[in-house]
Amino acid sequence: MLALAALHWLAPLVLNPYYATILARIGIAIIAAVSLQLVNGVTGQFSIGHAGFMGLGAYASAAFSVYLGAALLDSLGASGLVRFLYFPLPLVCGGLVAAAAGLVVAVPTLRLRGDYLAIATLGAGEIIRIAILNVDAVGGARGFSLASASHTAVDLRFESLAGVYAVAAVSVAAIARLVYSGGGLAFRAVREDEIAAESLGVPTTRVKVEAFLVSSFFAGVAGALFAHTEGYIHTNSFGFVRSFELVAFVVLGGLGSLSGAIIAAAVLTAAPELLRGLGEWRMVLYSVLLIATMILRPQGLLGQRELLGLWKSHGAARS
Amino acid sequence: MENLLQQLLNGVTWGSIYALIALGYTMVYGVLRLINFAHGEVYMMGAMTGYYAARWLGVAGTPSVAGLVGVLIASMIVCGLLGALIERVAYRPLRGAGRLAPLITAIGVSLLLQNAGQLVFGADPKFFPPLLESHEVLRAGEVAISNIQLTVLVTAVLLMGALEYIVQRTRFGRAMRAVSYDAPAAALMGVPVDRVITGTFVLGSMLAAAAGILVGLANPKIDPLMGLMPGLKAFVAAVLGGIGSVPGAMAGGLLLGVIETLVTGYLSSTYRDAIAFVILVLILLYRPTGLFGAPQTEKV
């Protein structure tokens, strides 16, 4: 809490807006990576269409803010407290819409296994993206700006870095509680051996759908944060390239390790910016580093371990 | 009616290009169970190599069949070597390290080729030199076929015929089928598995290079990011036909090309990209092994 408060008051003084944007993106990447880790690493179901849910959350929350939130903020007066109380609303809205889509995608596709599931999620992600691209109310191919046409004075952007990290902390804590609780063992049982888990009475389909539902909810929250910090969104940000990037966070961090996903998300999001001094070569070097790290550590940075013993001991005590 | 026939013809032409790319995905999946996401970039490199080869060979300004064949062969050789290099550097070190690590290096190679391509070739679109002068060769009523469409179709059919011959009738093809069926058993029987895998990458990359040249002929604007969407669509085509199945990739590619062209022609071009993925999800739900794949049973 103290750190967040310090971040809230000090960040605008110390950081220039460029660094603040990068830090916000890292926070968002962490939420997306940890949510994907729940499905890919912990439950062992391979999804490569996660950006679609992020995009849906981003657009749903942006539409909520532009078409409802602007009027609401205008009538209540845009004081700090009102804004503080308002901003969780579009985030939850984005999360819920993404979770609903997650349910629609999960129920039929989770019958598939392995590569076929991965391919189906890739297709689902692209369908979501192209569907949004064809909705004119959210800008279509022009992209969608977070500005209301009738309430022009209201600023719908959310610029508090502390806010981003508060949401990230809550999201990570929620997923960690879920994964390292007694019930969380069911996720890992499905990953280790689906047939064995089923024969021991684990409702495998339900467990998989649950993981997918929670995962797409937080992907939607990440997307909603993205929309409200950037102030402008375009479906190009939520294509399969973005999905692949999220998969890279998860695999590079170590499948099943939440802290690994956090580290990989932070490093891989910061890397292109840190390499900016190299000019045009930076993305070339970034891809070479990605390939090299994967070859040197195929199990990912942390493997299945966690960096903080806290989470692990919680689950181990009951197992 | 004539419009429909014309659309079908265009669809088959475009579909044969998908089919050529899809073959590379399906063959690599067959021997390695790896989705080679860098394959779309090999196709891009094919078109780019063709662009430069046409200049070096001095055929860029003078359209001729000999020039086209020269450019095609040059590009196929370069991309064949590129495919072998990618396999050696990015996939072989990870053999036995599970299935996900190579998937990430595949994404890494894809990013690398896109970004290196933008750096080396420039991010702006280039215009593929006209290796053939475009004219109509056949016209029946409203339906016309140009020599370029005919060249695309004939080249694609010849290459697929050659591939079918290699897979079914040569020692290498038999080794490839053996590795695809059961790699450890093939290794025990003395099949040099690593060499077969390299050979598979070379073959697949050569076909992708040919697809790149044919696209350059039909649709001359080429750029370093051109491989992304066609690569993914060709992958959908491979799944549609049954991933791992060579005739399946051919049929899937043609089918996808025709469906896309019909959707663009009769519904809306904005849904063109979505239709491929809708087909993908439907086929996975109702027939996950594709049109030509054999169902698999799971052993406990």
Strand order of the largest sheet of chain B: 1-4
Widest sheet: strand ordering of chain A: 1-2
- Average pLDDT across residues of chain A? 87
Q: So what's the overall shape of chain A?
A: globular
Individual helix count of chain A:
14
Total strand segments of chain B:
4
Number of helices of chain B: 11
What's the order of the H and E elements of chain A? HHHHHHEHHHHEHHHH
Residue share in helix of chain A: over 70%
Please give the alpha-carbon distance between the first and last residues of chain B: 54 Å
Instruction: Sketch the major β-sheet of chain A.
Output: 2 strands, antiparallel
Q: Give the C-alpha Rg of chain A.
A: 20 Å
Distance between the ends of chain A: 32 Å
Q: Determine the most extensive contact between two protein chains.
A: A-B, 41 and 42 residues
Series of secondary-structure elements of chain B, N-terminal to C-terminal: HHHHEEEHHHHEHHH
User: What percentage of residues of chain B falls in helices of 4 or more residues?
Assistant: over 70%
Structural class of chain A: mainly alpha
The helix/strand class of chain B is mainly alpha
Characterize the overall form of chain B. globular
Total count of strands of chain A: 2
Percentage of residues in DSSP E strands of chain A? under 5%
